[in-house]
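Much of what follows relies on a compact textual record of a protein's fold. Each token is a code from a learned vocabulary of local backbone shapes. The record below shows the convention in full.
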Amino acid sequence: MLPYVFGVDIGGTAIKLGAFRTDGTLLEKWQIPTRTEDGGKNVLPDALDALRGWMARNQIGWEQVEGVGMGVPGPVKIDGTVSGCINLNWGELHLPAILHELEPAISKFRVTNDVNAATVGELWKGAASDNLSAVMVTLGTGIGCGIVADGRVMSGSEGAAGEIGHFCVDREATVPCKCGKYGCLEQYCSATGLLRCAKLALFQQASRPSSLREKKRLSAKDVCDAAREGDALALELLDELGEKLGWALTAMASTVNPEVFIIGGGLSKAGDILLQPIERSFQKYAFHAFQDTAFVLAELGNDAGIYGCAKMVLD
């Protein structure tokens, strides 16, 4: 195996890059802005230029690089076709062909959805490193989900496996999700969803005391902090989040039966005050065969994607 490998995690605002030895040692990580104008045509050339710059500074040629792994914020089919990335202004693109045209010297290229890449990273060097299968759920502006079963990423026929953010958890909902459907998990359990539910509860329970009323610009972090300090309303909000997410994850467990669930994303920084109600709900609804599935908090943070992208090449 050649001595070096690159991981490239493309986001809507920044491209994160990592240079690794093939034994898993991270040599350097850095990021550049994502230029999404003009249909995102600059994204891949910019990423390659950033890699070439690092190689030139370190006097390394492509003949010493095992390959490049890439994560993108959208569905990716098994053949590397991206079915569209809204945040990058991309339509359908076959990334392996484009990368080969831009840089024929790359010997191996792998691409997957960014949350899948993060899941691989956490299994390799993070919170789930003793396991071969995991479901990772990222709770941020929306909800992302990556699935690795028996060491292999599960992408689905259209690259959309794991879209649990749009799993319906409230059939009586009347407020539409941004996807156009109703009662989606994302509306309740993402950071955005938790904030929406908090504002609604404060309005509907106007006479109920809560430290949340003192916040001029309420955030999901405020809700978690208040719950940690014992605020009754905030604790109820996290219980409701845990109830819905834990229930949804029983469906994932009955389908995939992972060794571990990894909870990541910005909201996961709340720690056990968030994790405990999710796990409690899961155990309440779960079939006995997978009732004891482990839950862990992600450890690699924003680096999970570059680790996972590198690991895909090595596999």
